[in-house]
Amino acid sequence: MVGSGRRKEDELAAIEESQLESDRGQWSNRAEFLLSCIGLSVGLGNVWRFPVLAYENGGAAFLIPYIVLQLLVGKPMYFMELSMGQFSNLGPTGVWRMNPMAKGVGVSMALISLIVAIYYNVIMAYTLYYFFASMQTNLPWTTCSDNWLSRNCVVRSGEMTSGLMPCMDDDPFVNYHMCVCDEKNATLNYNLTQHCFFGYETVIDLVPFNKSKHNLTDVVMVNNSQFIQQDREVVNTNCSQWCVKRSSTRTAADIYFYDEVIKLSDGIHNLGTPIWYLTLCLILSWLVVVLCLIKGIKSSGKVVYFTATFPYIILLILLIRGATLDGSREGVLYFLVPEWNKLLDLEVWRNAASQMFFSLGVSFGGIIMFGSYNKFRNNVYIDSLIISVMDILTSFIAGFVIFTTLGAMSKELDIPITEVAKKGYGLAFVAYPEALSRLPVPHLWSLLFFFMLFTLGLDSEFGLLETVLTCLQDEFPKLRRFKWILCIGVGAGCFLLALPCVTNGGDYVVTLMDSYGASFALLFVSSAEIIAVMWVYGVARFFEDIKLTIGYSPHCWPYWIFCWFLAAPILIVLLLLYTVIKYTPPTYGSGEAFSVLSQVLGWILAALVMLPVPAWALIVLARNRWNVCEAVQPDVTWGPACGSGNVDGTRLREINESGRENPGFDKF
């Protein structure tokens, strides 16, 4: 027993020495940490995904479950993950020394971050393409090109001189001086240069010559007979082919994005080859990300001073401008007044949970990673509150920006607000660019908007890729000597893996990766994480760790205990079960489900992401001779970050020894 204790002390001493010698890096100051965390949590998900989900789920009917889940799940888990990283100075894989059986959770987090980083940068490439397109003399999504004629292209406007023009009465031939409408409730195509837009046309008739009525000088001989030419105006029925029903029209912005930018094919089976201009934008996006991360947090920490603050300036400007638009009030009311019956729809709650995880970055590993570069005595409690509040605040600001604009468009076009934009990308790359084109100096607004989207995505991409890099370096410490080579290598690999996403069927690949590799797998990993920490490691022991870190018990501690031990685990598991039971495959724009083969590939991707959780648990169980109690005990190397200068080696050993017993609730 004495020999065993001495070996244990020697092992701990060796670990302490190696930790002190390792050059893991640390934030230069608290501002870099806060801005980086805000940048990770506040990204495209707030400006694009949050308004889209609110738009699709009844506006304010979505806000209520979103706020409830933020309070019961999001904020507690954010605080938990920051504390885990800061307490141990370990990344998403290393932190599971607290519960070795759950190390697979960290591996799955890294895989989720890798998958999201791959397709997230594709969306950033779209923003770059639109940014450069905004420099053209005419914004290409504001007018119908001649070759779009057969696609029923229209430019939406509330004026009678252009845009969607309904027939005014039952007359089958209503002349608008540009085209003849021969169908009730039809719309016209305007702003084209190749057209037959004349309500009447002149027809030349040959009339037999009559001496009493005609002059001899006007006679025309045809087949030895005398005729007189007479002009006659008739209805130009040829124009009626350009009159189409409102339901079959497509806006110029819609055609530009889907047909000209991403060149969307008819299905995932028809991928095609990478589109050259999107590939170039993707290369540029990855170059920016890799250069900013080349020195890890030492370089990215400086970049976030701009990338995390600039979007707020643009959002506030757009908010002020949107509030002045006629019809903005209707948009705000749609955003704030709930449809109470939708609160009973569990699908709304599931979508709110998905947005909460995607926005905050919970269970992606990035929060643990950022916390691990903190000083041990940093007040992580206050920081977690600031960041989570900023996330909600940004989502609401973005929501007001989007819905004031949608309300104005709804009034101008005289259509319901629910019909202004399509689902998915439609809000960010179709409806909003179209709305910006109606503002004074539209080129400037478009440049600012898409540059803002890129900077928002950049911060989140930093967190996602740095999570993968940190996990690799924590598992293989020698890689820290070649940090820049590792960064370039991982970035190049992600670029190659993203090439299928910039093909003609790339949008379907992105949908598949998001639906299976991120959304579904994320709920599974999150449920495993919260149970492994709060039910296995122990909520009481975890609370003691926090008290050691910040020096006091967090305010309203019963609220945190309730959320960690009961609310969050139960709600996440219920949401996971609901997602499995109510599973619906991703669909095309027409509503047709993805093919069975596509769904199989999606489930294979999800399985690869989730597999490390049970696989690692089985490996650890086998090493401990299938003794579950031994397998879940904290590793001998687990404890507070001893390199902080705040906790000495003696205290570290005391904590590890006492940690073998999970303290009771009387410790609070």
What share of the residues lie within helices? 55-70%
Uncertain segments: 158-201, 235-247, 643-667
Largest sheet: 3 strands, antiparallel
CATH top level assignment of the largest domain = Mainly Alpha
Quote the beta fraction: 5-15%
Overall pLDDT metric? 78
Number of separate helices: 22
CATH homologous superfamily of the largest domain? Answer: Amino acid/polyamine transporter I
The name of the CATH topology of the largest domain is Amino acid/polyamine transporter I
Mass-distribution shape: elongated
Distance between the termini: 33 Å
Q: Could you say what the CATH architecture of the largest domain is?
A: Up-down Bundle
Q: Gyration radius, to the nearest Å?
A: 31 Å
Q: Report the count of strand segments.
A: 9
Give me the side-by-side strand order of the main sheet: 5-7-6
Q: What structural category do the secondary elements indicate?
A: mainly alpha
Return the domain count.
2
Question: How is this structure best described in words?
Answer:
There is one protein chain. With 668 residues, the chain is mainly α. It folds into 2 domains: 2-136 and 257-321 and 337-405 and 428-663, Amino acid/polyamine transporter I (Up-down Bundle), CATH 1.20.1740.10; 159-250, no CATH class. It is built from 22 helices and 9 strands. It has helices at residues 2-21, 30-41, 44-56, 60-88, 103-133, 252-261, 276-293, 297-307, 310-323, 328-336, 346-360, 366-372, 380-413, 426-436, 442-475, 483-498, 506-550, 557-581, 596-610, 612-623, 628-631, 649-658, and strands at 153-154, 174-175, 180-181, 186-187, 200-208, 219-222, 225-235, 244-245, 250-251. The strands form 4 sheets. Strands 5-7-6 form a 3-stranded antiparallel beta sheet, with no helix packed on it. Mean pLDDT is 78; it is low at 158-201, 235-247 and 643-667.
